[in-house]
Amino acid sequence: MLAVQGDFAEHIAILKQLGVDTVEVRLPGDLDGVDALVMPGGESTTFSYLMDLYNLREPIVEAASGGTPIWGTCAGMIMMARELTEKFPEPLGLMDIGVARNAFGRQVDSFETDLRFSPLGDDSYRAIFIRAPGIVRLGDDVQVLAQLSDGRPVAVRQGSLFATSFHPELGDDPRIHQYFLTFAAQGTN
Ligand code: GLN
């Protein structure tokens, strides 16, 4: 669990509820022996600054290229991106997506909506968006798992990499954490 800033405690609470041991990652050595990494919601400019300060960038990029499953929610998704529409912050470039920060406008910058997250079948999922990032480019290998009613993608996967614009760590529905754990346990494909 990346724990430099943001709502990592909320992710940890759900993971614990699902019986998972978590490690708070603040320094490169904390990544040793980690089977999967979650990057939480928070503030991507702060993530980027602290990742540089603690030399976390390179080991996370290495873990991703070695096949470690990584999930980014909201600011975490911003860090997963290959490129952003703005110059700052500098993302990690793990996933073949382009992302725009605060893509849902000021008036509606926070909202909740029912979505269909395809791995859960037809059951709907209540998703919480807070100053959420939008996906503006999808690479060929990127699979869309959830979209808003206007078609905008909000959950994507590329092999062992997973990103959601919204915050499954807020609220008490553990199904998306369960989904991540299941594919993380199966290994990459
Ligand atoms: N808007 C924030 C950013 O740019 C992300 C918000 C969030 O994680 N809830 O980093």
Class per helix and strand makeup: alpha/beta
Bound molecules: glutamine
Mean pLDDT: 95
The CATH topology comes to Rossmann fold
Order of helices and strands: HEHHEHEEEEEEEEH
Shape assignment: globular
Instruction: Please mark out the parts with pLDDT under 50 across 5 or more consecutive residues, or reply none.
Output: none
Strand tally, please? Answer: 10
Q: Walk across the major sheet and give the strand order.
A: 1-2-10-9-8
Number of helices: 5
Oligomer: single chain
Helix content: 10-25%
Gyration radius over CA: 15 Å
Please describe the biggest sheet, giving its number of strands, its sense, and whether it closes into a barrel: 5 strands, mixed
What is the CATH class? Alpha Beta
- Name the CATH architecture: 3-Layer(aba) Sandwich
Distance between the termini: 22 Å
Number of domains: 1
CATH superfamily: Class I glutamine amidotransferase (GATase) domain
| Percent of sequence in beta strands | 25-35%
Outline the structure in words.
It is globular and about 40 Å long. β8 and β9 form a beta hairpin. The chain is built from five helices and ten strands; from the N terminus they run αβααβαββββββββα. It has a five-stranded mixed beta sheet with strand order 1-2-10-9-8. With 189 residues, the protein is an alpha/beta fold. The chain has one domain: Rossmann fold (3-Layer(aba) Sandwich). It is 25% helix and 27% strand.
